[in-house]
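For the sake of clarity, the format in which proteins appear in this thesis is described at this point. The fold follows as a row of integers, each naming the local backbone shape at the matching residue. One such record is shown here in full, so that the layout can be seen directly:
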Amino acid sequence: MALGPFADEQAFWVWAMDPYAAIWDQDEDLLLHEVELFDLLLAVVDRPHCPKLLCLIALDDFALEIVLGGFEPHVSALSEAAGRARRGKYPPVRAWAAYVDRLFEYCLFRGPVNRARAAAMAADLFAGPVAQRRRRGVDWVTVRSAAQGRLWECTAQHEAWHLYINRRSGAWRKAHPSRMTAHDLAIL
């Protein structure tokens, strides 16, 4: 049975254990955005020395993609994968589960949201933990007041997205590539 770009599970493991093996020369991580690969990707990441950081990057990015897209079968599969990851042996897989938990928590729209929480939300909603570690902290996120102080407008270096967070309710919306219209801001 094919698993994403792999003919079978053995082909996946051959690729995963070889740090120099590639399945594609560009955007290889996008080929790993398959729900049926969750368990295999988690198994690679839950090792003392993960041979492919790309597996963790793919998990981070796919989790964010699923939460932003809200496609129910994928949301359920992500929730189940995070549950399995919470029981992982090594910190990277448990950290990924915590990241997924935070993404789901943001979808509950719990307010009020202060500036520090807005910065943390923006960091998670702009990039996964691997990218955040490379950027070191949340200094790459800018949070400013918008809509007469009713919203937080968050931007990030090297990102075209804007994140708007209602300070009272915690509701949020990402806009790409330009800012939201006055009408969009009014209904958030």
Notes: The two ends are 45 Å apart (CA to CA). The chain has a mean pLDDT of 90. The first helix runs from residue 9 to 17. The chain is about 50% helix and 10% strand.
